[in-house]
Amino acid sequence: MTTENRTIKLKVKRQECPQAKPRWEEFQMPYRPYMNIVICLREIQKDPRTSDGKQTTPVVWECGCLEEVCGVCTMLVNGKVRQACSALVDEMGDEITLEPMTKFPIVRDLVVNRSRLFASLKRVSAWIPFNSAKDIGPGPRIPPQQQQKDYVLATCFSCGSCLEACPQVNERSNFIGAMPINQARLFNDHPLGKPDAVKRLKALVDEGGIEDCGNTQNCARACPKHIPLVDSLAEMNRQITRNLLRLFRD
Amino acid sequence: MKIPLHFILKRLHSFTGFLPIAAFLTEHMFSNFYILQGPEAYNARIELLSNLPFVMFMEIGLIALPILYHAGYGFYIVFTGKDNLAWYPYRQNWFYTLQRWTGLLAFAYILFHLYQTKGSEFLYGKEVNYARMAEIMHVPGFLWFYLASFTAIMFHFANGLWGALIGWGAVTSDAGRRVSGWICALAGVTLYVMGVSALLTLAK
Amino acid sequence: MGKNKILVIGGGLGGLMTTIKLAEAGLSVDLFSLVPCKRSHSVCAQGGINASVNTKGEGDSPQIHFEETILGGDFLANQPMVLEMCQNAPGFVYMLDRMGVQFNRTPEGLIDFRRFGGTQFHRTAFAGSTTGQQMLYALDEQARRYEVEGLVTRYEGWEFLSAVIDGRGVARGIVAQNLTTFEIRAFRGDAVVMATGGCGMIFGRSTMSAISTGAAAASLYRQGAWYANGEFIQVHPTAVAGEDKNRLISEAVRGEGGRLWTYKDGQRWYFLEEWYPKYKNLVPRDIASRAIFKAVREMGLGVDGKDVVYLDISHVDRKTLQEKLGGILEIYEKFMNEDPSKVPMRVFPSVHYSMGGLYIDSRQMTNIPGILAAGECEYQYHGANRLGANSLLSCLQGGFAAARTAGQYARGLDQAAADVKASIFEDRVREETSRRSEILKMNGKENLYQLWQELGEVMTTNVTVVRHNKNLAAADEKIQDIARRARDINVGDLSTWANQTAVFARQFFPMLDIARVITLGALARNESRGGHYKPEFPDRDDANWLKTTVAKYTPNGPELSYEAVDTSLLKPRERKY
User: C161-206 pLDDT, tens per residue?
Assistant: First the structure.
């Protein structure tokens, strides 16, 4: 593979604001080894001109940690959801399309509003019912096996890829997606999270809850952190089945 | 507390798929299997079934209504999904889309099958028996339609059963899904082979 | 009325800890963050958090932790605050444990501890290799719980522009801007806690997040807040150089047995083990970075003649790697396309952390009454060099102490912010709105992002591991030149809807101020101490320089003064490893 004279073409779907009409713009830049999408977009910032030389505004997109732990730069690269920082040009080809995620309201260009993810964390009480930040000693002992299992669940960085790839999340449904369901599992599994376990199950059987899952298992495939989301969905289904009667009481 | 209606309807949909629909399907394929033993055996089987007590009640209450509910709610489910195979062409995503298409085809087939059997009996007095079914299966178009529908139904059955195992939380691990997947597939293929061999016998 | 309102600026670990402690005390909090809190830079902390719990029976204690932190910081930190931090550390780790942080466990189910730089004890609690992320999430969850209870209001996607300061010089609130709608609004608060993180973006490429511009603290500096020890910038020895950022490879890799080497005479040469037989690969970061510079730049022994040495973990078994370092190795594999469990990683030092920051007193209060600071944006706790895994700890300690002081301060006010006349808020909003219009109108010839890249190159070349007075003076000239050219930038986007260029243009000017604080602070300090190393003055000079640099803003550049360091608990001694 020669690195000289290779040109990267970047087609970016742009939209000034939610009311504006989307349009495509094409940019070109010379290839460099280890280039990722973030580097490409920064090239545009330094010289915001389209392939045909027209001056334009710099593309609006978000990035944070640039090492795939903050989740902010999630977008569609060549149609598929992923983080821009870890999308290396070498894997993406010389013609790359960038679009905003489709399951969240657009803000501008490649930026969407993912606040629904955080709202869904409230819905499932994704926290330990913690009492005091005072110095009152350690929590319960936890076997390393359980820690290893739950740690993986806890690495979810709210990127929204699981919702983006899910056919059941769309404008005709209220499905909350796999992300909060996995969080409910995480906290139901923790010894100190158990007091709220039934409350979380109740939140999951409400409108738009776990029953809207269509078993495509796309979520687990799309998850950049390889969280076993299908296991989480199944586990919560199991807990709901086991607690069926309790869910209807009080 | 507020009754989670959405949840109940969805679980009922899943439950009816298993009981009575999957159970009836199994019974039906077993009954059809008598076709391989010849007209007498098959006709006797029909005779036996149609003389069960409260047969009318059972047919409507335990078969027709559940199927109608399963199909009706199924239409709603189809409506709320938006498939995305173009970008995520994963096997399980194919199954998701196929589950919806096979459900629609199965429902169309069931209506047509009812018309050709119960309907014809009621409208034109054509009794349902070996001869009547053989007559239908000698029309190549019908045979192909039946074969295609059987394929769809058995896929819908096996994949639906497998999904229900996850949906009710009976299977919660990757290994469990693999094993139960093979078992469901085996169940589907068994019923499929039974059903198709009956069809082909009739078409001979 | 009657309930005090505190404004917390920054949704990382420091800000969230402050928020939780305030809410727990029943105070109402407005929490401002550039990004949803879960996306703050704290997620990038990998290795762990120090706490002398002595589970391994090695005889560790908070006192030893304190002494090693002071020694690691080359005696520049004020000691009583550091002691309190080290004493509180076990309690913080237990608190996190009760919040559900997924710390790795010993077979008995106790929190496991690993080794880190600058100590010989197993003192660092860790959650896989994403400890900062896990801690941040736990605090974010608790803040969300308080949000549901109505004690906390989040303003995510809002940027701090400036503080509102009344005629008596007391802070009464802030002005912030919504980064999407561009709405500029004043918020009243009885106290303001700055927890706005580090300033790595001044160096262009660092291990820090793209949001770590330091602009909020820098804006406050322009308003009269003092900035202390700016010249102390930590360069982490092991990062993977990248064009967009340098990706950190945690010290935890060496804590779990990773070894640094390069080729010498065709043989593997473990230079740290040879030079520091006692601590080997776990010497403090400033020393390890200088050692790499010596091997590569002075001796010319970089791998393939490049700015690279090897960090080797391939001898450790796969299961340990997966359980304790999984995330780090995955990142390396993703970006470099090589499996670190098979081949050594190619690393080089990178700007990582700012020991300096807003000047605060022993109660976390800045020199502006009513404004406090916590976390990386302030200067206490780390002296001239931070020990690994002390940063997460200092965020918690800072937030804990800031919340305590903010509550006391707010309750002691004779006039609540809610009762202050509206005009001072309106004036400030008007000023910031006209500043916004000014920026949107900029249509000159320079490109902002190009200038930022130039700034990064100037700073990284001249103001990092090895510093020469001649170069520092030249760097300051260049920064001023960039500042001049920055007045002629073309924003190129007139929109007042999610206009990122306008946002960054506003941030860039205060960043340049801090760049000068760092550079001139370094130029003035004619000694070598911790992360600050001058070959012309290779030794620590306690007689003249055992003092804190305090920079005050003037339109002509920073005015430097010096303050004595509180060394009442541990007598300064030679720093040897």
Answer: 999 999 999 999 999 999 999 999 999 999 999 999 999 999 999 9
Taking one residue from A and the other from C, the number of pairs with CB-CB distance under 8 angstroms is 203
Instruction: Give all chains having 3 or more CB-to-CB distances under 8 Å with chain B.
Output: A
Q: What contacts C2, CB < 8 A, 6 or more positions away?
A: none
Inter-CA distances, B139 with B146, B192, B199, Å: 11, 21, 12
Is there a contact between C100 and A190 if contact means CB atoms under 8 Å apart? yes
Record the tokens describing residue A16, joined without a space. 């000034």
The answer as to whether A2 is a domain residue is no
Structural domain harbouring A152: 115-248
Beta strands in C83-241 (DSSP E): 113-115, 122-125, 152-156, 158-165, 171-178, 184-188, 191-194, 227-228, 233-240
The position carrying tokens 């090239």 is: A43
Count of CA atoms in the C-beta half-sphere (13 A) of A12: 30
Asked whether C350 and C244 are in contact (CB, 8 A), the reply is no
**Does A151 sit within 8 Å of C98, measured CB to CB?**
no
- Give the CATH number, domain containing residue B101: 1.20.1300.10
Beta strand pairing call for C259-264 and C267-269: antiparallel
Give pLDDT, residue A5.
81
Report the first-to-last Cα separation within chain A, whole angstroms.
67
Q: Is 1.20.58.100 the CATH classification of the domain at C427-546?
A: yes
> Structurally, how many domains does chain B consist of?
1
The type of residue at B115 is Y
Task: Find out whether C347 and C308 touch, Cβ atoms under 8 Å.
Answer: yes
pLDDT tens-digit readout, C202-220: 999 999 999 999 999 999 9
Specify the CATH number for the domain of residue A204: 1.10.1060.10
Which tens digit of pLDDT belongs to each residue from A57-78?
999 999 999 999 999 999 999 9
pLDDT single digits (tens) B114-152 = 999 999 999 999 999 999 999 999 999 999 999 999 999
Look at residue C362 in the predicted model and tell me its pLDDT.
97
Provide the domain count of chain A. 2
Pick the CATH number of C235-350 from 2.60.40.1220, 3.30.365.10, 3.90.700.10, 3.90.180.10: 3.90.700.10
Average pLDDT, integer, range A76-86: 97
Question: Which of A99, A166, A171, A215 would you mutate first to test chain B, the one with the most B CBs within 10 A?
Answer: A215
What number is the average pLDDT over the span C351-357? 98
pLDDT surpasses 80 at C377: yes
Q: In what order do the strands lie in the sheet with A7-14?
A: A23-30, A7-14, A95-99, A74-77, A80-83
The pLDDT confidence band at residue C1, using thresholds 50, 70 and 90, is very low
C-beta atoms of C104 and A144 within 8 A = yes
**What is the average per-residue pLDDT within B52-78?**
95
Give B-chain residues touching A227 at CB under 8 angstroms.
none
Average pLDDT over residues A160-184: 97
